[in-house]
Design brief:
By secondary structure, this protein is an alpha/beta fold. The protein has 12 helices and 15 strands. The strands form 4 sheets. It has a 5-stranded mixed beta sheet, sandwiched between helices. The chain has a 5-stranded mixed beta sheet with strand order 7-6-8-5-9, sandwiched between helices. A 3-stranded antiparallel beta sheet has the order 11-12-13. The longest helix has 20 residues. The N terminus is likely disordered.
């Protein structure tokens, strides 16, 4: 199928005044802000389009007394939204990309990956600790995080601190920090704080040497039904070229490792000129064991059999017609190759033990 064939027969169908596009989202304030930003972009591209936002609660929003890594559900924040998509109750769904598994249910695809915001993790201090950093917090200070990935890296880097689980949306976690004495600090994604307009709460951004970030962190994804060619074509205009390639590499790395929220896997990516750099790491739960490597690939040296149009090809769940297939293939291969390198050095054993310990704790 050619690029032209993949487009809807009548582009005006997307711009008809009577057409209503229903957008699914979680109910949290951050999710609504993220969804509103996507809707604004779509309405700027298609001014005559009518948009309707449909908000709903997900399993991850409802279970707040259990660590994410313990629930054992791969689609904690996506399942209910995907059910609505399958029932044609919504036409597209906005997610944080890091919440989407690397293998999507049959019939769904990520039709847009928007320009990534800062993917780093941020330290938010209790008001009484203003002016401090993780380095300068007193011995045995308790730091809250809902992520095994963060805890594993930071336990190794800051052995004088104690890390404990904290759940809830951003508002809830900040309230727990500010109104109680249980935590000296919490770790959150910088992108979420920035989108909420709370960047002044960021006391410290964690650099790669302190904490690599989660796969897809900082990027928004638009999930659609793979058969909806008109919707796919509509949202494809929002793809950010560099973000797509970075996230394909990251997701391919995670998928090859069979990682998820129940094991500590972390990444860092960069595009410099024509080079895509991927750093990937796996950790034991306490951070004492770590395998970390960096690889790079030239985006202008296409894989010979992949230098064709990318119509209809999903790469780790992403459909990106607007981006050269050869570059997507290069990014995906980079992720797989780096994962294979770590697997050859014992990554599977580290992750297996981490998963078993997490299940047993």
């Amino acid at each position: 199928m050619s690029r032209h064939d993949a487009q809807p027969e009548n582009q005006e169908d997307l711009k008809m005044p009577g057409r209503v596009i229903r957008v699914g989202t979680r109910k949290s304030q951050l999710a609504r802000i993220q969804t509103d930003s996507v809707v604004e972009k779509l309405q700027a591209l298609y001014p005559d389009l009518q948009m309707e936002i449909v908000a709903m609660s997900t399993t991850g929003d409802k279970i707040l007394d259990t660590a994410l890594s313990k629930i054992g559900e791969k689609s904690l924040f996506t399942k209910e939204l995907e059910n609505a998509l399958e029932r044609n109750e919504v036409d597209l769904v906005v997610h944080s990309l890091k919440d989407l598994p690397t293998t999507l249910p049959v019939g769904f695809t990520i039709g847009a990956v928007l320009k990534r915001e800062n993917p780093q993790d941020a330290v938010v201090l209790h008001p009484k600790n203003t002016g401090k950093s993780l380095d300068s917090l007193p011995e045995k200070s308790v730091v809250g995080t809902s992520s095994l990935r963060r805890a594993a890296q930071l336990r190794k880097r800051f052995p004088h601190l104690t890390f404990k689980d904290i759940r809830g949306n951003l508002n809830t976690r900040l309230k727990k920090l500010d109104e109680k004495e249980d935590f000296s600090a919490i770790i959150l994604a910088a992108a979420g704080l920035q989108r909420m307009g709370w960047q002044e709460r960021i006391s410290q951004l964690l650099e790669p040497e302190d904490c690599l970030y989660a796969v897809g962190q900082g990027a928004l994804a638009v999930e659609v039904r793979a058969c909806d060619r008109d919707i796919l074509d509509m949202v494809a205009a929002m793809h950010d070229h560099e973000t797509v390639l970075r996230c394909i590499a990251e997701r391919a790395f995670m998928k090859r490792l069979e990682g998820g929220c129940s094991v500590p896997v972390a990444v860092h990516t960069q595009v410099k000129e024509t080079q895509l750099y991927l750093t990937g790491a796996v950790y034991s739960l306490d951070g004492s064991e770590c395998l970390k490597e960096t690889m790079q690939a030239n985006l202008e040296s296409p894989l010979q059999d992949q230098d064709v149009a990318s119509d209809g090809v999903q790469r780790v769940g992403i459909t990106a017609w607007t981006i050269p297939a050869s570059q997507q293939a290069t990014a995906e291969k980079l992720g797989v190759d780096l994962a294979d390198l770590l697997l050859s050095r014992g990554a599977k054993e580290i992750l297996t033990v981490a998963r078993q310990l997490n299940d047993a704790n």
